[in-house]
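Q&A log
Question type: sequence-to-structure
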Amino acid sequence: MKYKTYLNTLLFAWVCIPTIAFAHADIFNTVTEILNNTIKPNEPGCSVVVTDGVNSYFNAKGLASLEYGTSLTPDTKMLTASTSKQFLGYAVLQLVKQGKLNLDDNLEKYIPEFTNFTDIKVYQLLNHTSGVKSHWAIFELMGKSLFDEYQPELVTDVLQSSIVDFAANSRYLYSNGGYFLLTKVVESVTKKSFHQYMKQEVFKKVGMNNTEYLDDYKRIIENRADGYMIEESGNFVAMRTHSNIIGPGHIVTTARDFSTWANHLLNLNITAFFEPLTPYVKSTNGGDVNYFAGLFKETLNGDLVYQHAGYYENWRQGFSVYPDKQLSITSLCNRADISTNKMNYEIAAALLNWADVDKSESDNKSKNDNSDVDKVSLLKSFAGTYFNKTLNEIIDIRFHKGSLYYVSPANSAYAKLFYDSENMLFKDVGFKQNNTFSFSTNTLIFNSTILSGEFEKLVFEPEVKMSSKHFGQYTSEDGVGGITLSKSETGILIKIDKIGEIAYLHTKGKIWLDQENLSTLSIASQGDKTLLSLSLKNIKNLRFTKSNR
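Response status: OK
Response body:
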């Protein structure tokens, strides 16, 4: 196969020593084909590195700057989002192994100023079972965007005035707020600024000399790529965040540095390193907790993998480590419209000789055939919104052109479902998270690596009477401002300060549902007050009150 090199638009950077586990040509051809199929010339792109514990293989395609025509290389500095969490998790576990920190300690010991979280334990921040709200979700409700200016003090103020979403360790729910609190724990233990400690004790010691937290967004960083969004017109727009919030994300790094980190993990015995967290793999409601200090522990096609993705509106990253195969894959992209989960999965599938990743689709074409009226009718009957009251979670299933799709309530991303006839259930291969769906009359059994349970299909109840005392102005218990509840022709309207109106319809389960945003609302009277509980995206149980006096 021949490859053309486009000056200033396409760069294939390849550095390697003969590998033990994988052939040079196999990796090169695999990554090159995937990048060529994903990225067009003169566009922002991705820098990819595959490592085997000894050698690193770099490949990049696309532009670091559309304005200057500079190409991405293994040494281009890229901003990362939640893939940064693993470094914070690593630092915390280092302190545990050094005897300076105990995972069972209450936060009161380290950050007593957060009086609303004193009984939460350190490990519950690490594995997202603390119930601490995600500050980014609260910012969105406050009418802010990713490109507003943010200082760490704002996160502190928001978290100190918020209440937990649920009792600690009762369930799993991903929380950037919890990882922000971990930075405060690290500072309390080490008596150093978080940025300074991470640079000295983690990045430098591992050999990541071009990696640092971006704690000052105004700082000039040489050889830094721009991040790009796509407008509705299809044009790319360069955007930079104005945030100095570090810890849950916001590391500037390179593919070469990430390869150093990946090889470090492959030689570390990562499973043994995470051993202190193994007692905490079950929540009190019996759900599995597979989040290990910044990485999800999963099994894909029978292979153990620790992985994490990262997303800003103008950046995307994916990181996967297969310890039993001595394989790691990192994708750093300066655009957000590329699924790095899918990219890393396809690279792993090719290198590990998995079955054709599209086989499930081809095997199920007959099952999703529009010409089969009975099957189409059956699939349509499965479509709907399902709710689990105990978990306060929604599963949204939609029917489109003969197929079922699962819509994520966190970000409205969707994945096509395919029927597994051997196990008599549906699988979602779009998110690569081993999600399974088993339907029966008005119920759904949903299983994933982070959430499992029985969900009841919501049925709308158009005629419902509400007391006039429920309408009016509500105040927040979480410091996000006020809301106004009013009646509409079909249900009710919630007007959130700086956000606008959200329309809800009533269901027979006494839950109000906003189908567009997959938000739920419950209303209850308590003495001379009306209590309103709102769940939206990654926020559960956002509480508002109204006095009826």
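Response note: The CA atoms of residues 495 and 501 lie 4 Å apart.
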